[in-house]
Amino acid sequence: MQIKNRIVRSATLEGLAEKYGYVSSRLIKFHEELARGGTGLIITGAAAVDPSGSGGPYQVRIDNESYLDGHRKLTNKIHEYSDIKIAIQLIHVGRQGYHPKYHPIAPSAVLYPITNIMPRVLRTDEVDQYIKMFVDASVNAYECGYDMVQLHGAHGYLLSNFLSPYTNKRNDIYGGDIENRVRFIIDIYNQTRDKLGKSFPIIIKSQINDFVPGGLEDDDGISIVEKLVETGFDGVEPSGGIGETPIITKQAYPSKFIKKPEDENYFLPLAKKLKPIMKNSALILVGGIKNPVSAEEILKNRWADFISMSRPLIYEPDLPKRWQEGDLTPAKCTSCNSCLETMGTGLYCVIRKKLEEKDSKNI
Ligand SMILES: Cc1cc2nc3c(=O)[nH]c(=O)nc-3n(C[C@H](O)[C@H](O)[C@H](O)COP(=O)(O)O)c2cc1C
């Protein structure tokens, strides 16, 4: 697949859908801005594979026919921009769900302290049904013209609930050793391949470290990636942190915790460990990338195949274009995380908005 450049927009929940999960014109406009701004591969915010897997009314869904027209409009719009590709990220919120109608489900009964809800444990004979949700959603995505799908296998949602020894205490074929904990994801991959053939790229955001005691840690996280690569995943974007990890999770690391330049690309040391085991699978590095000079160094040294950004592109959707045109000042984003407050009901950069409001008052 030909992609305009090696810059990826990491999946970022937009909360810009129409109720309940329909692609809206404001969402299409939002993504068009990213395409115009020169991001080579746009990964959408997590889209739910089932109503029970959605995090809220404004989160995109792709679980039935009624949603597909909106997705087609979105992919068509992005494909008006030459060599810009769009992937959809697929999610079931699992243990971290909070829905008036659907009780959260999980591999095991481990209380989620943020909502204080004990999830219902999936029976072995139910697991197939949840695997099928991801397979069907991938087929829908393919039919709507997405260039690839990304499974959300990180941050404490259903797929990572299976990967982690903290949330997976099962003693059937989906629990226990790594082989069993990764089975759920590998089954999704294999069944999707059976339906869609070999050429449709399937990538994953994969949990490496939960940053909680008893959780997934780097060594097991790396072994999981090894299995995903062996299985055939076309790309892996390693990540970490779960819902109960305080805000200094590696998922969203605010600037005040960055003491030296090397802290900035905080998954880089991990990427260097992963690269030798990636074979033909692309390594997508996310986390704190804001400086074009170090981003270029990462790519030149082949420490990663793509660099991926979330928060910097909320502030500056035209950041890749700015860098390409020679303005190499780092991203204006300060990783303050205030965008996290807006993602449920319409994502924006709070700092940028405040500055714009101040400027308009000064005029
Ligand atoms: C507002 C917001 C929403 C996010 N939504 C998602 C999401 O839907 N799926 C996902 O995998 N990660 C999500 N993330 C995590 C980012 O993709 C990324 O991994 C993290 O922010 C680190 O990258 P950055 O330093 O470039 O922001 C989100 C992050 C933020 C700040």
Written overview of the protein:
The protein is built from 13 helices and 11 strands. It is of the alpha/beta class and 363 residues long. The chain has one domain: TIM Barrel. The strands form 2 sheets. Strands 1-2-4-7-8-9-10-11 form an 8-stranded parallel β-barrel, surrounded by 5 helices. Strands 5-6 form a two-stranded parallel sheet. The termini are far apart. Flavin mononucleotide binds next to helix 11.
What is the structure about, briefly put?
34% of the residues lie in helices and 13% in strands. With 363 residues, it is an alpha/beta fold. The longest helix has 20 residues, at 124-143.
What CATH calls the topology is TIM Barrel
Query: What is the averaged pLDDT score?
Result: 95
Secondary structure tally: strands: 11
Instruction: Indicate the CATH class.
Output: Alpha Beta
Following the backbone from N to C, one meets helices and strands in this order, namely EHEEHEEEHEHHHEHEHHEHEHHH
Report the structural category: alpha/beta
Secondary structure topology:
Layout: E1 7-9, H1 25-36, E2 41-43, E3 47-48, H2 68-78, E4 85-91, E5 105-106, E6 120-121, H3 124-143, E7 148-153, H4 158-163, H5 178-181, H6 183-196, E8 202-209, H7 218-231, E9 235-240, H8 261-264, H9 268-274, E10 282-286, H10 292-300, E11 306-309, H11 311-315, H12 319-324, H13 350-362
Parallel strand pairs: 1-2, 1-11, 2-4, 3-4, 4-7, 5-6, 7-8, 8-9, 9-10, 10-11
The chain binds flavin mononucleotide (FMN).
